[in-house]
Specification:
554 residues; alpha+beta; 25% helix; 34% strand; globular
């Protein structure tokens, strides 16, 4: 998929974000709530903060997750801290039945023919839009162009960063949901995203096939696709009728168009019946933060200061410590940050979904779990651009230090399948005479690895302090100027956040963060007789945020 039109662009990114926010909020506040007394327990939240890590939170107070009575009977009680979104304990043993590993996931019979047809129709719609309204120069496809593309093999493209890292994964989410909303589970739907992306790369345009597009659209589409499927499941209610039912269907369709289309043509849009068994997770919550961020450059926050307002949401789905963790994304986290008066409205979008979770050694004072997760990362601001698809392995722990003090920790290891980060010397790049490139690409592509550490302290069920560190290494497989051993990047985030709870659902807080980067280059580029040395580059951006925090749902 090539820019400017080689795929579904989120030129209406603002509208997409509004729909996603509305969906998360509706999912959290729709059901009726209830309360019960609970004992001191601890749980974990792994929500990504604005600087690129994951929080961990613990507490001791408890209430009941708001959900419909039928869901309470099926899933049981969820215990959490009413002053924060952080999960404290899974439901007490024996209070409700749990889902078995083989239990149905969608309540819809499989329809392979329709799923395949919808993948092809999605690509045809994108092709037709580029060919007719846009008059693009890459849509003159034919069997000969298909053959030439496959014969030439994969290369890297020149799309804008937000096109490659957010629009293409959104496109892949449509492929994924063509299967997911036709009765297939996570593992069976994933090949549809990968195959749909390959079909577009080989046969939807005349440009050479792009390996970075295939990874971003296929793998990123799986992450966004399962996330949107799960969120819309919490919005939809097959037992509802009237105007309330219509608005639920409309809202879910706006967030997940393919699923909405399938419900419409199958009659499920208006049919009254039972909800699928996994419609509601055992825990569901949002944390909203709004405030002001100040970003500097260099040693001081006052150097080259950029100040703007921000709004972010951390959406929590499921319980990693509970029993409902058999299937991929039974527990996932969505992090979204909007930066106003910045280069792009969407400053951060992250999805982390557990693929596998198991208990490790536990005692009365400590509990440990091991998890493997799929991660989608997107950061785009004045200071840096970073995005990619990765898989992580984590050890999560929680400790009761005393009756009033709790500690949560996480140790993460990342394997980056394909990452992207902005290049310092993109402006020096030259196009070969026979290279049909449309623009200078301002960032580098490559695989990588990383690690992270986190700790969060709670007192009497109230979050006081969070510390998070993350390190990433990116090998430049294809760069704006260089590739291979001649170019690589390391970058780090460090964040410390303090929160003062004011009421059960509201608090005020501040966090201080720093982004550190070192990029290695060894090239010398000559332009019009003048040499430009590509020396190593370092970057330091401190950031300070002050905000109000609200818990919605949960």
């Amino acid at each position: 998929m090539r820019a400017p039109g080689g795929g579904l662009r989120i030129g209406g990114a603002g509208w997409t974000v509004i729909v996603l926010l509305a969906g998360c909020l509706l999912a959290s506040v729709t059901p009726a709530s209830a309360q019960q007394e609970g004992g001191a327990a601890a749980g974990v939240f792994l929500g990504p903060p604005s600087t690129g890590g994951y929080d961990i939170g613990f507490g001791t107070d408890s209430t009941v997750m708001p959900q419909a009575a039928a869901d309470v009977l099926r899933y049981g009680w969820s215990v959490f801290d009413p002053a924060s979104p952080f999960l404290l304990a899974h439901r007490p043993a024996g209070t409700a039945e749990t889902r078995s590993q083989g239990e149905a996931s969608s309540g819809v019979e499989k329809n392979l023919g329709l799923a395949v047809a919808e993948v092809l129709i999605i690509n045809w719609i994108v092709w037709a839009f580029n060919e007719y309204p846009r008059g693009a120069n890459f849509t003159q496809v034919s069997p000969r162009s298909w053959y030439e593309n496959i014969k030439a093999g994969f290369s890297f493209d020149d799309n804008h960063f937000n096109t490659n890292q957010i629009a293409h994964p959104y496109h892949g989410n449509l492929y994924y949901n063509a299967a997911r909303s036709n009765g297939f589970n996570y593992w069976a739907s994933a090949p549809f995203a990968i195959a749909g992306s390959f079909h577009w790369e080989c046969c939807g345009e005349t440009h050479n096939m792009s390996i970075n597009d295939w990874v971003a659209t296929g793998i990123g589409g799986i992450a966004l696709g399962e996330m949107t499927y799960r969120v819309t499941s919490t919005i939809l209610d097959n037992t509802a009728t009237g105007a309330g039912r219509t608005w639920r269907e409309v809202g879910a369709t706006a967030l997940n168009p393919v699923r909405g289309f399938n419900r419409l043509i199958s009659g499920r849009w208006s049919e009254v019946g039972q909800n699928p068994p996994d419609r509601m997770p055992s825990y569901l919550s949002n944390v909203l933060r709004a405030g002001v961020r100040v970003v500097g450059e260099g040693e001081s926050i006052s150097d080259s200061t950029n100040t703007n307002a921000f709004f972010e949401v951390d959406f929590w789905y499921g319980d990693p410590w509970g029993e409902d963790r058999h299937q991929p994304f039974d527990f996932f986290l969505l992090g979204l940050q909007l930066n106003f008066s910045e280069k792009h409205l969407i400053g951060r979008l992250q999805v982390r979904g557990n693929l596998f979770t198991t208990d490790l050694k536990n005692t009365d004072k400590a509990q440990h779990i091991f998890s493997v997760a799929q991660n989608y990362d997107y950061f785009n601001n004045f200071s840096y651009e970073f995005g990619g698809q990765s898989v992580s392995a984590s050890i999560l722990s929680r400790f009761d230090l005393s009756p009033k003090w709790q500690l949560g920790t996480a140790v993460d290891g990342y394997g980056m399948l394909m990452g992207a980060i902005n290049s310092d010397f993109a402006f020096l790049a030259e196009f070969p005479p026979d290279f049909l490139q449309e623009r200078y690409r301002e960032y580098d592509f490559g695989p990588g690895a990383g690690a992270g550490l986190a700790a969060l302290f709670y007192h009497s069920g109230r979050e006081l302090l969070m510390l998070r560190y993350r390190f990433n290494y990116l090998y430049t497989l294809n760069g704006s100027v260089q590739e291979g051993d001649d170019a690589w990047h390391t970058f780090q985030w460090l964040i410390a956040r303090g929160t003062v709870p004011i009421t059960r659902n509201f608090g005020i807080g501040a966090d201080a963060a720093v982004f550190l980067r070192k990029s290695h280059y060894t090239c010398v580029i000559t332009i019009e007789g003048e040499d430009y040395p590509c020396t190593d580059q370092t970057q330091r951006n401190p950031e300070l945020r002050v905000f109000g925090s609200w818990k919605v749902g949960g």
